[in-house]
Amino acid sequence: MKIALLGGTGNLGKGLAVRLSLLGYEVIVGSRSEEKALRLAEEYSKVAGVEVKGTVNSEAAKLCDVAFFTIPWEHVFTTAESLREELRNKIVVSPLVPMKKENGVFMYVRLPEGSAAEKLAKTLDSKVVATFHSVPAARFADLNEKIDWDLPLCGDDEAKVIVAEIAEKMGFRVLDAGPLRNSSLLESVTPLIINIMARNKTGELAIKFV
Ligand SMILES: NC(=O)c1ccc[n+]([C@@H]2O[C@H](COP(=O)([O-])OP(=O)(O)OC[C@H]3O[C@@H](n4cnc5c(N)ncnc54)[C@H](OP(=O)(O)O)[C@@H]3O)[C@@H](O)[C@H]2O)c1
Questions:
Q1: Residue 210 is assigned to a structural domain of this protein
Q2: What is the mean pLDDT of residues 105-122?
Q3: Which of 5, 6, 12, when mutated, tests ligand 1's pocket best, judged by the most ligand atoms within 8 Å of its CB?
Q4: pTM of the predicted model, to two decimals?
Q5: Domain housing 35
Q6: 60 and 79 in contact (C-beta within 8 Å)?
Q7: Is 144 a member of any domain?
């Protein structure tokens, strides 16, 4: 299975690229810049010991079966509009967290569409699954870290099962949290976690339901 990481040159992209390629997925790191994609893909390949490809976002979207949008939410929708044809009928994973900081406090930004994942679904003609919001990028990119965290997921069709299988192979306990219209609940967990981290000086936290 070919997995594109659109904007995969950033924080979340690194852990995804390395862990997915170690599991045998063909990973294509996408970027606005081909040079940057190739450079980061080479870096990830060295960490994983497996080839990771790099190219521009449009080519990565064209080649893939599944695409993760690992781009900050403020910028993602223009990119998504430009990739509508390449991603038609494909599985798209949204880890997007619409969030802002006001007076030192992180707050969830409620979009008119309901959530960033719902807006992405309206922008694209793809099967959108919302998940990975609560994954702390630096710990996730550290291969010494055992990924036994919980991963809630929202989606409307069989795409949810495929994304769940991918995440389970990485070690997550995947928990079905309902249809895509529930995805604002998942997105809003991240500012909650970040406020807890900042105020209690805990370092990066992941989640487990016990
Ligand atoms: N960081 C986390 O711990 C974490 C955890 C869970 C979910 N998330 C979510 O995952 C997404 C990615 O987070 P991140 O921290 O990995 O982001 P990031 O490192 O800040 O950015 C990722 C990539 O987005 C691309 N990008 C930046 N501005 C852009 C623009 N104007 N247009 C198109 N692409 C642009 C850049 O790639 P190029 O310059 O190569 O194009 C950049 O390397 C976000 O939506 C975030 O809410 C993050």
A1: no
A2: 98
A3: 12
A4: 0.98
A5: 2-200
A6: no
A7: yes
